[in-house]
Specification:
The structure is a homotetramer. Chain A is an alpha+beta fold. The first copy, chain A, has one domain: Roll (Thiol Ester Dehydrase, Chain A), CATH 3.10.129.10. The first copy, chain A, has 2 helices and 6 strands. In chain A, strands 1, 2, 3, 4, 5 and 6 form a 6-stranded antiparallel β-sheet that branches. The longest helix of chain A has 20 residues, at 22-41. Chain A is elongated, with a radius of gyration of 16 Å. Chains in contact: A-B, A-C, A-D, B-C, B-D, C-D. The interface between A and D is medium-sized, with 15 and 15 residues. Strand 2 of chain A pairs antiparallel with strand 2 (51-60) of chain D.
């Protein structure tokens, strides 16, 4: 399984080189991450939980342009003890062309104690449902 | 008197038309406003006070470009009972060319009661020091 | 008639006050403006035309929040010789609450001669179809 | 040798968690990269050259806050045939605390032929002057 988030690029996300500025891709990746967390949360009503972003990365494969319709595919590539890794593929919805690849390392974090904690079993199982997916 | 804030435009603030995107000017105006509030606050240590932005506006007089050094001049054009108006002139520091004119209506606000309140006399006096300045 | 643009607020569009930052509203207004121009352009295939933003303004009526679904209603409030004025109302789609009011003065501009030009009759007629609309 | 870029965080770069949003760090990294390219360019007047960003990454070590004065240290960690890697350390200028670590893979690119090209010897030598620096 993998999650799909859809965005249409905005004019203010372009830059003077005529394409989407590199910083804008991290806006799209944040959107995808938050939608994915919402999705998990929808199944976990008995428990409030939080995440901290430890690291994020983007490989730029092709230029993106204004008014482009993009899909950001999100899946889980690693589930560790206290953290997990999300991978993203950003594609043009019309041509299927890969525009960028993203990655995010997310730490399971207790905001009360301000410390990382082991990923709960229930969440681990949810994450594993999105594990190993190969975005095409 | 008027306050001057200096910014150098960033690449990600441009857009595909090759100039500074209109949304970026509001980043500069926010910078100028916050610096101006800091300045006032520096003289008002006995009192914590807060502001709410009720309205903001920008007239675009000339195009701005990447790596341009800008000065944002800020002065007070109106001091009312519960609000005041700031005006801004954004100029190229090298040529003096006017790039944009800004305006902000700021309400004096009590965050505890969630209501606007009369601007205190001491603050009014501070604001009046920056009143009527004609940015050249 | 009026045009409606839909946006869902993003996390990176919030600020440390816990609400949508004032600069983000100008992103939404740009989205609405561009969609409106697209709409007009769709009816004007025989002619390439361009616009320049001369001024933009936003009145903040209520705080906006993360993950809020907003509609930006756009209509024409003035059609002049060489320019026209767009008005916007930003509302929460669920409650109908007005979050902000926007305005944009747009100049009809010839990029080849770098000069403003009279708004063509055909465009004037299109604009007048969206004139006088009262967003509710 | 390493290059230092100074930024003061802006209010609109924060988010509703009360700290600097992750996407804002990529604004700072772009600033640092562009300053570094300017620096190299200043020594290479006989030749116009261009770069393409192939990948960028940020590890978030500590939270950043509004009005924080940051220094972004930039150095070269790899010089390859057609590309090179920049590393960045973002620190609080007052406390020296490390806030984030950045990385960027940059490809030497000929915009006329739209192809990557070997990094010229002169540029390689310039890059090597910033190689191996250990930011403290």
């Amino acid at each position: 399984m993998m999650h799909e988030t859809f965005v249409r690029t905005r004019f203010c996300e372009t830059d003077a080189l005529g394409h989407i500025n590199n910083t804008s891709y991290f806006i799209y990746l944040e959107e995808a991450r938050i939608e994915f967390f919402d999705l998990l949360g929808a199944n976990m009503e008995t428990q409030r939980w939080q995440f901290i972003l430890a690291s994020t990365k983007c490989d730029f494969m092709a230029q993106g342009y204004f008014k482009q319709n993009l899909v950001i595919q999100t899946w889980v590539s690693r589930v560790g003890t206290k953290s997990f890794t999300l991978n993203h593929k950003i594609k043009d919805t019309q041509t299927g062309k890969v525009i960028a690849l993203g990655e995010a390392i997310v730490v399971y974090f207790n905001f009360d104690t301000q410390q990382s904690e082991p990923v709960p079993t229930e969440l681990k199982e949810q994450l594993l449902e999105y594990h190993g997916a190969q975005a095409e």
